[in-house]
Amino acid sequence: MTLKKIHRWIGLALSIFLFVIGLTGTLLIWKKEYLWLTMPEARNVIENDAVSIAQAIESIENSYEKDLISLIALHSEGLSLHKVFLSDKSYAWHNQKGEKLQQWRGNERVEDWLLDLHH
C-alpha cells in the first residue's frame, strides 16, 4: 500500500512538472508574435546593411555608461529589435536606429518570466 502511494505522489509531481514545461514551451513558440503585438516597432522592416547596423550599435553604446553593456543581440529573423544585456542584470529593447524602447530588470517581462519558468 505504501509503495502505491509513493508511486502515485511521484507520478503527480512529475506530471505537474512536465505540464509546466510543455505549457511554457508552447507559449514561447509565439514569442515573436507576442512582441509584434506589444511593441509596434518590432514589426518594422529589418535593415540588414552594415552601415545601419553599425550606426545602431554606436547609438546603443552611447546610451549607456562605459562597461555597462555585456552583450548586444542584433535583431533576429522577423523581429526588428536589438536586445541589450547589461552587466547590472537588466535588459533593454532598442529599435533599429539604436533608440531605447524599454528597459527592465530580471524577468519583469512576460516572455523572460516564461523562459525562466521553462528552464
Explain the overall architecture.
It is a single chain. The protein is of the alpha+beta class. 48% of the residues lie in helices and 18% in strands. The protein contains four helices and four strands; from the N terminus they run αααββββα. The protein has helices spanning 2-28, 31-38, 50-62, 110-118; strands at 69-73, 82-86, 90-94, 100-105. The chain has a four-stranded antiparallel sheet with strand order 1-2-3-4, covered by helices on one side. Strand 3 and strand 4 (100-105) form a beta hairpin. Helix 1 (2-28) runs antiparallel to helix 4 (110-118). The longest helix is centred in the first third of the chain and has 27 residues, at 2-28. The mean pLDDT is 91.
Strand and helix layout:
Elements: H1 2-28, H2 31-38, H3 50-62, E1 69-73, E2 82-86, E3 90-94, E4 100-105, H4 110-118
Antiparallel strand pairs: 1-2, 2-3, 3-4
> How far is the N terminus from the C terminus?
35 Å
Mean pLDDT: 91
Number of helices: 4
As a whole number of angstroms, the C-alpha radius of gyration is: 20 Å
Q: What is the helix/strand order?
A: HHHEEEEH
Approximately how much beta-strand content do the residues carry? 15-25%
The low-confidence runs, each spanning 5 or more residues with pLDDT under 50, are none
Structural category: alpha+beta
Q: Please bin the fraction of helical residues.
A: 40-55%
Largest beta-sheet details: 4 strands, antiparallel
The geometry reads as: elongated
Main sheet: strand order:
1-2-3-4
In total, the number of strands is 4
